[in-house]
Design a protein that fits this description.
5 strands, binds 1,3,4-trihydroxy-5-OXO-cyclohexanecarboxylic acid, alpha/beta, 5-stranded parallel β-sheet, about 40% helix
């Protein structure tokens, strides 16, 4: 199984930015945790972070052209603005799990809209960086057809 784990703008600042919302785990620590978990589960993981919308569109398209089975994405602030990311995900038809570290539903009004959600099989919020592991588990369960997405 091959998964693309994508992170949008400012997620490279994890551990530094607003720890009250995003915790103290650094982006490097998060990547290591995801890589170790995927290795243990026999998943090939492609991790990528960018602060640029078009680069994220390119990577979503690459997931399709390089034969990925699914995508986990935290689009950061592009969640709330980007029709381009929505269209990119829809254009691949790849099962996609949207993840947010913080509980976006309890934050500002401008965070209540997600353009990505309508293309996602599941949205995970408010679980901190553990949410990435939950997202990978959900995607695997969906791909293996073992159980309903929880
Ligand atoms: C975020 C929530 C977004 O509203 C914010 O712009 C981010 C991070 C999260 O992981 O909680 O950059 O996606």
């Amino acid at each position: 199984m091959k998964l693309y784990i994508l992170n949008g703008p400012n997620l490279n600042m994890l551990g530094i930015r607003e720890p009250e919302h995003y915790g103290k785990t650094t982006y490097a620590d998060l990547c290591k945790r995801i890589e170790d978990y995927c290795t243990e589960k026999g998943i090939e993981a492609v991790l990528y972070q960018s602060n640029h919308e078009g680069d994220l569109v390119d990577k979503i398209q690459e997931a399709y052209f390089k034969g990925a089975d699914g995508i986990v994405i935290n689009p950061g602030a592009y969640t709330h603005t980007s029709i381009a990311l929505l269209d990119a995900i829809k254009s691949t038809s790849l099962p996609t799990v949207e993840i947010h570290i913080s509980a976006v539903e309890s934050r500002e009004n401008f965070r209540q809209i997600s353009y990505i959600r309508q293309a996602a099989i599941k949205t995970i919020t408010g679980e901190g960086t553990n949410g990435y592991i939950h997202a990978i588990d959900c995607l695997c369960a969906y791909l293996e057809g073992k159980e309903a997405v929880k």
